[in-house]
C-alpha cells in the first residue's frame, strides 16, 4: 500500500506540456493507415511484431498438437482437418507420413524463426531499445518499418505454402540436402521447398534490417548520461542478439542461395553421386556437408538469438520484482559477451555423426562445454538476485522464475549432448528433442511471456488479467515439464525422433502410454496458451486501466514516459540519466529512477562510474 | 504544416548525426560475411580454366572503376554549385553502371553455358549476388538524380544541399557504390588468380 502511494505521488510530479492531449499524443492527426499499418513509430512496430508472432505461435502450436495426436493415437482420423488441409489430408484416413513431415518442418521453422526470433526479438527490441536508452525512435524508422513488412511478406509466403497442391516443405527445419535440393525426392521438396527458401530469404532481410537498426540505435542514440555501464541488461542482451544476427544470418542466406542454384540451375554444390528412381543424376562434385556447415554456422547462434533477449527480459523483470539490484551486473554483461563469442565456435557439435575427424570433434566438445561457464554465472546471479529479495509474484515474475527453472533443466542436458562420446549414442533421439525444447523453446517462451506481462501496461495502458495469467503460468510450467521430461527417458531408450508411427517396432511399444500422456498434456498446454491469447486481446480493451506512470516502481526510462506515449515518446525534453538501472533498496529507498541525480552524500554504485 | 513542425520540433534534438555511417558500416560487414562462404568455396576449386572466365568481366570492371571516379568528383561539384556538371557526372555514372550490369549478365551466361565442371559455377553465384546489390546502389542513385533535374539555378542548388540529409544521402550512395566496386575488384582478382 505504501508503494502504491509512493508511485501515485510520483505521477503528480510529471507535468505534461500544453500541446499534448494528456496521453502523450501530439495534436497532429494521423490516419489509421499511417498510424497502425505503415507506422514508423517503434512502439506500433513492436505491437505488429508481437501480434504477428502470436498468430504464428497459434499456428505452430496447433501443428505440434496435430503431430502429437498422431504419435499418441496413431491411426486416429480428424475429419475437421480436411476443411483446412483438403489438399494434404483426407478426413477418413490417418495422418500420412508426408503430411506429418510437413507439420514437423513448419512447426520448427515457425517457432524458431517467426515466433522466437521475429515475435520475441522484433517485439522487445522495438519496444524497449528507444524507450530504455532514451531515444525518440530508432536510428532509421523507415528501415524499421521495412523490417516488419519483410517479416510480414515472409509470413505470407510461408503461409501460402500450406495451400499449394503439393505438400509444404517437409525436409525438417534444417532442410538438409540432398532431400531439399531435389524436387523428385518427395512432394514436399517441390514448390513447397521453394516457398520455404523464399520465405526464409525475406525473413533474413527483415532480421538484418532490424538488427542493423538496433545496433545503431544503441550505439548512437543513447540520451545524455546513459553510458554503456548504465544501460539495463535488456539492452545489452538485445545488442548482442542483433550482433549475432548481423554476423550469422548472411551465412545462412549464402547457404540458401547455393541450394536454390542446385535446385534450379543445375549446379551441384551440395549434390554428388545421386541415384533416384533407377536414374543416376548428372550432378557430381558437391557435398551436403557444406550445407550443414553453412546452416549450423547460423543455426547455433540462432539458439542464442532466441535465448539472449529472454535472458535480458528476465533479468530486468526479476530485479524490479525482487526490489533488489541485479546481482553481478558486469558479470551478467560479460557472460552475454562470452556466450555471444562462443556461439560462433561450436556449430559443429550438431555434426558429430556426419563423419568428422574425431580430433576436430573433441575441439568442438571443449568449446561447447565452455558455454556452461557463462550460462552458470547467469543462473547463479539470477538466483542470488532472488535471494532475500522482497519478492512480488506478479505474472511476469513467475514466468521469470519459471524461465530459470526450465533453463537449468534444459541446460544440464546440453552438457550430455555437447560431449561427442554421449551425443553419438543419443543423437537423433527424443533426448535431443527434450533438451532443446526445454532450453530454447519453453525457456524462451517463458522469457517472452514475462516480457509481455511486465510491459503490457506500457504497450496498451492497461493491465492483463492476473487470474488468467496465473492459470496460464501454472498449466504451462507443469505441462511443459510433463511433456518434455518423459522424452529424456524415451531418448535414452533409443526412441528415434522424426518417426511418425512407432507401431512397427515392438521395442518402442512400451512407450505408447507415455506418448498418449504427452499428447494429452500438449493439448492442455495449448489450450492454456489460447487462454493467454484471449487474456491479451481482452485486456487491450477491457483490462484494468493503468493510472500511474510507473506501476511496477521500476527505475528504467520507459516508465518516465506518459501512460500512452505518442510518437517521440517524451512530450518534453528527453530525460537525462544519472545512475544505473538497478538502484533498488538503496539508502533506505525502495527504488531510485535513473533520472534522479545523486544526492550530495550519495556514492554511485561502483561499476557504473565507468564512462 | 506549421503545426506538424511544431509538434515534431523536439525530435530534431536526438543526436543521430553519425547514424548513417554506422548503418552503412554494418551493411558492409553483413555483405562481406555473405561473400565469405562463397569465396571459401571458390578457393577450394583447383584451377579455373581460362575458358570459363568471360572477357565481358574485364569490360565491366573497367566501366565500374570509371563510374566510381565520376562519382568521386561529385562532392566538389556540389560544393561549387555546378549543377550541369553534377547532373552529367551522375547520369554518366548511372549509364556506366547499367553497362556494367549488362556485361555482368553476359559474363554470367558465358559461365552458365560453359561445359566446365560444376564447381566453377560458384562464379555465377558471386556475380548474381553482387549484381543484385549493385542494382540497389543504382536505384538509390536514380532516386538522388531525379530531383536534381528540377533545380534550375545555382541558388536553388545551394539551397537544396543546405539540408544535411541530402548531402548525407549523396555521401552514403557514393560510399556504397565504391564499396561494391572494391568488392567486385577483389572478387575478380581472386577469380583471375585462381586461373593462373
Summary keywords:
heterodimer; A: 611 residues; mainly alpha; two-stranded antiparallel ribbon; disordered N terminus; B: 196 residues; 8 helices; elongated
**Low-confidence regions of chain B:** 1-13
- Helix content percent band of chain B: over 70%
Number of strands of chain B: 0
How would you state the average pLDDT of chain A, rounded? 91
The end-to-end span of chain B amounts to: 64 Å
**SSE-based structural type of chain B:** mainly alpha
Helix content of chain A: 55-70%
How would you spell out the order of helices and strands of chain A?
HHHHHHHHEEHHHHHHHHHEE
Largest interchain contact: A-B, 47 and 37 residues
So what's the overall shape of chain A? globular
Report the radius of gyration of chain A as a whole number of Å: 25 Å
Elements of chain B, N to C (H/E): HHHHHHHH
Discrete helix count of chain B: 8
Treating each run of at least 4 consecutive H or I residues as one helix, how many helices of chain A? 17
Unreliable parts of chain A: 1-27
